[in-house]
Amino acid sequence: MSLIVRPDPRYQTSYLEAHDEFGGVHRDGDGDLAQAADPTVGFDGFTFTREGLTDPEEFRRLVQVRRADELPETPRPNGYVPCTYLWIVEGDEYLGSIALRHELTDFLLEQGGHIGYSIRPTARRQGHASTALRQVLELAAEMGLERVLITCDEDNAASRATIEGAGGEYEDSRQGKRRYWVTTIATDRPEGARIG
């Protein structure tokens, strides 16, 4: 069974295999591989490449960047919010990514939402997105969010089914994006037993 974990260097090989499967297409929930510096807020920027990520030290740096992004004090470009990046895994196999943005900007309210996710092509239609979304809805509740906004492209029937299966209530469509509000899931998990 798949589960969500914080980014970890042990998934380097399967992460890179998944990167190749995606063929360079943007992946919701995985974050950018490059962001320009923004000196006005003390953000140094970063650039990762597929070739560079074959180096274990460079891959560890990617992991550090992703994990640091959930901390409110981490410098980030203007218009970006703290975000918890999680990887969907089964055993030692990276299957995809899911991200939980801690708050909404005007743009995220219109287009991006709180949660974005993507599943590598060879792992699709096996329930991994639904499982990961349920787990992230629990994490969102632990963070104090009562409901979250999730969007998908109008023509993405699989994502639409995943969101609606999680209880998503359709609000409207804006600029080609369907917008759903989803109630988070309260758990009785002890506070120290968060995602690994």
In short:
Helices cover 28% and strands 25% of the residues. The protein is an alpha+beta fold. It comes from Janibacter limosus.
Q: What is the oligomer described by this structure?
A: single chain
- What is the CATH topology classification name? Aminopeptidase
Rounded Rg: 16 Å
Average pLDDT level: 92
Number of strands: 9
User: Helical residue percent?
Assistant: 25-40%
Annotation field: number of helices: 5
Measured by DSSP, the beta-strand proportion falls in 25-35%
Identify the CATH class: Alpha Beta
Strand arrangement, largest sheet? 1-4-5-6
The structural class is: alpha+beta
Secondary-structure arrangement, i.e. CATH architecture = 3-Layer(aba) Sandwich
Give the domain tally: 1
Low-confidence stretches: none
Distance between the termini: 15 Å
Order of helices and strands: EHEEHEEHEHEHEE
CATH superfamily: Gcn5-related N-acetyltransferase (GNAT)
The major sheet is characterized as: 4 strands, antiparallel
**Shape, principal axes of CA atoms:** globular
InterPro entries: Acyl_CoA_acyltransferase, GNAT_dom
Protein name: GNAT family N-acetyltransferase
Organism: Janibacter limosus
GO molecular function: acyltransferase activity, transferring groups other than amino-acyl groups
